[in-house]
Structures are given as structure tokens and as C-alpha cells.
């Protein structure tokens, strides 16, 4: 049954700096509530130009739900529910097909289970941040999250305009505003739209993804949940900057770019970068892939750094990413690759993914592997990036990432850490002051300026390196290129040839059987075993003990490490939404400069053949070839 309520409207004064263009003062005309947590429905009419506050004065619902409390001047209803299978989080939150999340109470159960898992002091009367990558279902999901947060006693929600906040920006806002945590609505680099993927994750008070101790509790609570606490409030208009109040609970809609841009200006020398980007003899292309960084690209690259507007490709965020796959790699960012490898291509190209935390770096006819990228940023950071003027505190990489970064840490005499895949494992090291720069081979690079990997940060870091190397170049002089920087690095440190083979959406049973077969194989392996021309140094299933809190992560990837330092690694990815993604990583170090220009697939072919043979991948998965080669 519909719910009736009276509301009063209060005009507030808000600094003009919070608003982009004009905003409107609304008068609430009517609304209704569906007890099945789909959403409130309401209509608005504009009555004047000013920010607004909606204040609940009374309400008297009549619905099947049970009123359990009057909190902060709000009516809190208890909606009965039952556990739903399959809500265990992966490497980075809970990801499923959109249609799964749209099932009755599916998202609501997980959100309530989260609040049931957190200590009261982590959210009661506190501040939480909410944002996402703009994908399909985010608008509806935002309203559900806001109402359940209010129902559980959260004091305030800070949400990006239209629900937009990149993953790095959420981390930045949490840290700047000293929030208790934040929700990120994203399935990252996975495709969006009614038939594709959606995801949700929670970040803690330092902006880092929730640790496994919390995600395990969330999963446990999804198995026993019986009620959802939801506030009787209407949908919030997320298209207008300003504050909406319901009793003691409030929602503030903020500019998604401002806090993040301010942080970037504090990390980098924008005047140095502008000197390069605005040069007539330097051409730059950034592909936002119709994803969330489209909201950031123009304010940063065009308005602040002087790039041409034509430098931004696919710069409008779309709910389905323009029918594309927002994963910045050589396969899914093929259009950008073709531009950089075309005749007289631009000097520099970059792309970011769905939620803005991944990156791909290209020079003219030159691809920079993510493993090389983080190593080169670390090697040049102190000279080129003001944030690191005193030098990095330490360096770290995920276990499958190549050893390029290890060699930089050794040369610079810096602490070095090898962690499991998943950005959350870097957070403790950063909070303990042990880590400054880190990266993953899966196109994730970042530093301790936030607690997430950061696509635009990586692009700005590369632009800073190029700008620093070219700061004294006069017009007409040959510029130091991306390829020049990389090849100079190889000459100094040696080259780690590296490739990753992805086999997406394999049948889970076959993929799991393959990993179990490999675990049985390593249990019988010993140093000195011969695999073709390679001699085994050791084989194991990687485990990690956190040096800060002593927590242990086991079964993080099957490794075969050979006497010459070559490695083959097998993992099942936790970032997909269906089936299993098998990933094979192949690495070989080459100190000989005369061999550095070899194609990686040629240099690594003996190891690739060995990996496929040892794993019996075709037998277990039926796959003849990978979906993606990096």
C-alpha cells in the first residue's frame, strides 16, 4: 500500500564552489514506497534556483514491513528476507550478472550483511561515501544503499553527482573527508548493460578495500540474514549538487572530480606536465572507453593541462560503455592501439578501465607492459614527481607481476614486498609507512597517495617522466619518447620478458580440476627436476604472511620457478562474474641488451609451450587458445 507523509522544505546557503552551473530548489509533490526494496517513487517540480534540503516532519506508513525503531527522526522498517546463495566476495568485492543483482533483495541482503559485520563505531552516526562507474543498475542500486544505510543508523552519505565517483576518487574522498568508509558500485573492467556485469565492494576508513576478515564476516552473515533495516525515505535526486536531510540523516551530492583533482595537483607538478602536453610537437590521446574516467579526462587533461579536446576519445560515460569491454589491454582497447601503431601515430597514448583504477600506457608503435610501467615509474619518481622528492619508502608488486620492480628496489636499496593479487594486500604496508609505489601485471599501478590502484595517476606519472626528460628540449628538437625511456631502463636493469594468457569464462569444474592437478604435481616436485631445457629451482602454491598484522593468505597461485629465474604461474582470477578465468603468467629475464628488442611472444615461446604442456590446459578446459594475450 502507498505511504503518505508530510514534508517541509528548507532553503540552505551553500558555497558556490560546490556547484557546477545552476542548481534548482525543488518542492516535493508526492511519493510512494514499495516494500520489496525496489525504490521509492516520487515527482518533483522546480520552484526556484537554489540548493535544497528536504526535511521529513511526519510519516504514517501502512505496509507489510514492521516498524522496528524511530531513529534520528526516521521511521525504520524491518523487511523480512532469506539467505541467498552465492554472495561470497572475490578478489575485489561481489560481482555477478546484472540480472542476479536485480533479483528481489539480492543487493539489499549483501548491504545489510555488511552492516551486520561491522562494529557499530565504524558506521553509527558516521559518514560513508557512495559512488560508482556509471554502469547500468547503479542508479537503482544507489537508492537501495542509501535507504539501508539510513536504516542502520548512518549519519550521512556523501555521493558523487549522478552516482559517479571513480574507485580512486572514492578512496581519495574517504581520506580527505575522514569518512568511516565507502561503497563502490562497479564491476571494474567487466562489460556493463542489462545482460552483463555489476558489482559492489566496501572500502574502509583509510580508503582501502575491506580486508578478508571483514569480507569473510559479510559472507557468513549472508548465510543467516533474516531482516533488512530500511528507512522510510524517498529516492534522493542525485543529479543536483546539495544536501538532502531526513531527520538526523543527510545525503550530500558532491562534484565527483574536485577532491580527486586537488589531490593530483598536490602529487604532481602540473606546470611541468602542461609544458609538455601543450607543446605543438607533442601529441597525446587518452581513451576513457566510455567509462568513469570520461568524467575526469576533460577537467584534468584539457582544462588543467592544456591538451586539445580532440585528445580525449570515448569521453562520455555510458551505462553500457558504448557496447564495449572497458578493459585497457591490447585486445579490448584495440582502437587506441591502432591509432598509436598507425602511420605517424601520436607520441603518447593511454587508456583506463570501467571504474578508473587500471591503465594502459603506449608510445608511438610501442606497448609498455604493466610490469615494466611500475618499475619505470619507481625508478624515475624521485626526480619527476614532487610527491616522491624524498624518495619512495618501499616498493611492492603482486606475485604474478614480473621481477622488473625487484631490480629497481635492489638498485635503490629500498624495502621490497611480494604480495598476493588484490590491492587490499598493499594497504597494510602503506598504512605502516613501509610502501610508496606498487603495481600489478593486470594493468594496476598506484602509490600511497590513496589506497587503491589509480589509472589517471599512472598516466600523470608517465607524463611527468616524459615532461621531466624533455623540459630542456627546444621546439624542433627530437623529444625523448616512451620507447626511449623504456629501452634506457632495460639497458640499466635488464629486461624481464613477460606475458599473460587469459582463458575467460571456462567451465568452473574443469578449471578447478586443473589447479588441483597442478597442486598435486608440485607436491611431488623437487629442486633439480628437468622440464625440457629448464631446471626446477622450486615449485609451490604461493602463501603470504602479512608483515604488519601477521594475517596469512594461502593458495594464491601455483608457481614453477626455474634455476635461471624464469617462472610460469597458474591462477584462477577472482574478478569475473561468471565461470572461471584461468590465467597463465610467463616470465624470463634477459640481461643481454642485444636481445631486448625481441618480440616477447618469440622470446617466451619455449616457456609458453612448457606451461601449456605441464598444465594440460586443453585437456581440462577444452580451450585451444586464450581469450586475451598480454
TrEMBL record:
Catalysed reactions listed for this entry: alpha-D-glucose 1,6-bisphosphate + L-seryl-[protein] = O-phospho-L-seryl-[protein] + alpha-D-glucose 6-phosphate; alpha-D-glucose 1-phosphate = alpha-D-glucose 6-phosphate; O-phospho-L-seryl-[protein] + alpha-D-glucose 1-phosphate = alpha-D-glucose 1,6-bisphosphate + L-seryl-[protein]
Pfam assignment, any one: PGM_PMM_II
Transport as UniProt keyword: no
EC numbers for this chain: 5.4.2.2
Annotated ranges, domain Alpha-D-phosphohexomutase alpha/beta/alpha: 87-226, 259-361, 371-474
Complexes and interactors: Monomer.
NCBIfam families: PRK07564.1-1
Protein name (record): phosphoglucomutase (alpha-D-glucose-1,6-bisphosphate-dependent)
Source organism per UniProt: Anisodus tanguticus
Amino acid at each position: 500500500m502507498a505511504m503518505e507523509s508530510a514534508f517541509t522544505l528548507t532553503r540552505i546557503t551553500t558555497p558556490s564552489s560546490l556547484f557546477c552551473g545552476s542548481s534548482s530548489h525543488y518542492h516535493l509533490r508526492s511519493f510512494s514506497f514499495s516494500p520489496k526494496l525496489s525504490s521509492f517513487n516520487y515527482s518533483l517540480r522546480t520552484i526556484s534556483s537554489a540548493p535544497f534540503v528536504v526535511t521529513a516532519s511526519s510519516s504514517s506508513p501502512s505496509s507489510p514491513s514492521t516498524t522496528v525503531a524511530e531513529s534520528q527522526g526516521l521511521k525504520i522498517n524491518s523487511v523480512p528476507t532469506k539467505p541467498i546463495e552465492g554472495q561470497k566476495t572475490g578478489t575485489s568485492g561481489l560481482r555477478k550478472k546484472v540480472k542476479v543483482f536485480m533479483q528481489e533483495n539480492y543487493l539489499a541482503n549483501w548491504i545489510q550483511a555488511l552492516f551486520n559485520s561491522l562494529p557499530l563505531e565504524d558506521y553509527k552516526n558516521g559518514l560513508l561515501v557512495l559512488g560508482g562507474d556509471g554502469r547500468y543498475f547503479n542508479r537503482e542500486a544507489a537508492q537501495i544503499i542509501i535507504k539501508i544505510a539510513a536504516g542502520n543508523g548512518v549519519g550521512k552519505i556523501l555521493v558523487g553527482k549522478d552516482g559517479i565517483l571513480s574507485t580512486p576518487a572514492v578512496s581519495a574522498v574517504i581520506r580527505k573527508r575522514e569518512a568511516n568508509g565507502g561503497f563502490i558500485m562497479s564491476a571494474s573492467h567487466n562489460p556493463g548493460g542489462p545482460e552483463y556485469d555489476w558489482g559492489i565492494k566496501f572500502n574502509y576508513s583509510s580508503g582501502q578495500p575491506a580486508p578478508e576478515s571483514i569480507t569473510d564476516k559479510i559472507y557468513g552473515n549472508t548465510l543467516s540474514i533474516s531482516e533488512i533495516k530500511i528507512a522510510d525515505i524517498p529516492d534522493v535526486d542525485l543529479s543536483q549538487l546539495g544536501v538532502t536531510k531526513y531527520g538526523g540523516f543527510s545525503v550530500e551530492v558532491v562534484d565527483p572530480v574536485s577532491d580527486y583533482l586537488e589531490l593530483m595537483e598536490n602529487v604532481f607538478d602540473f606546470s611541468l606536465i602542461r609544458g609538455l602536453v601543450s607543446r605543438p610537437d607533442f601529441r597525446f590521446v587518452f581513451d576513457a572507453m566510455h567509462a568513469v574516467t570520461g568524467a575526469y579526462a576533460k577537467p584534468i587533461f584539457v582544462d588543467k593541462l592544456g591538451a586539445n579536446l580532440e585528445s580525449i576519445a570515448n569521453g562520455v560515460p555510458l551505462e553500457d560503455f558504448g557496447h564495449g569491454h572497458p578493459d585497457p589491454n591490447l585486445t579490448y582497447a584495440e582502437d587506441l592501439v591502432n591509432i598509436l601503431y598507425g602511420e605517424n601515430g601520436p607520441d603518447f597514448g593511454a587508456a583506463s578501465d570501467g571504474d578508473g583504477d587500471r591503465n594502459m600506457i603506449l608510445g608511438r608503435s610501442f606497448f609498455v607492459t604493466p610490469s615494466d610501467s611500475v618499475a619505470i615509474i619507481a625508478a624515475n619518481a624521485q626526480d619527476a614527481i614532487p610527491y616522491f622528492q624524498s624518495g619512495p619508502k618501499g616498493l611492492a608488486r603482486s606475485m604474478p607481476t614480473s621481477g622488473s620492480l625487484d631490480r629497481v628496489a635492489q638498485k635503490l636499496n629500498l624495502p621490497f614486498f611480494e604480495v598476493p593479487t588484490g590491492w587490499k594486500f598493499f594497504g597494510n604496508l602503506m598504512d605502516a609507512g613501509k610502501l610508496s609505489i606498487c603495481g600489478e601485471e593486470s594493468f594496476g599501478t598506484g602509490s600511497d597517495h590513496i589506497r587503491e590502484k589509480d589509472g589517471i595517476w599512472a598516466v600523470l606519472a608517465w607524463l611527468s617522466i616524459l615532461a621531466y626528460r624533455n623540459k630542456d628540449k627546444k621546439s624542433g628538437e627530437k623529444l625523448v619518447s616512451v620507447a626511449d625511456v623504456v629501452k634506457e631502463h632495460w639497458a640499466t636493469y635488464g629486461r624481464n620478458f613477460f606475458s599473460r594468457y587469459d582463458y575467460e569464462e571456462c567451465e568452473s569444474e574443469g578449471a578447478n580440476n586443473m589447479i588441483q592437478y597442478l597442486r598435486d604435481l608440485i607436491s611431488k616436485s623437487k629442486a633439480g627436476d628437468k622440464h625440457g631445457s629448464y631446471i626446477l629451482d622450486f615449485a609451490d602454491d604461493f602463501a603470504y604472511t602479512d608483515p604488519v598484522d601477521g594475517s596469512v593468505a594461502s593458495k594464491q597461485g601455483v608457481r614453477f620457478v626455474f634455476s635461471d629465474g624464469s617462472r610460469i604461474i597458474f591462477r584462477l582470477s577472482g574478478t569475473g562474474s561468471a565461470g572461471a578465468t584461468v590465467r597463465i603468467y610467463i616470465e624470463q629475464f634477459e640481461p643481454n641488451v642485444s636481445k631486448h628488442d625481441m618480440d616477447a611472444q618469440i622470446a617466451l615461446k619455449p616457456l609458453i609451450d612448457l606451461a601449456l604442456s605441464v598444465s594440460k590446459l586443453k585437456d581440462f578446459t577444452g580451450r585451444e587458445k586464450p581469450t586475451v594475450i598480454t
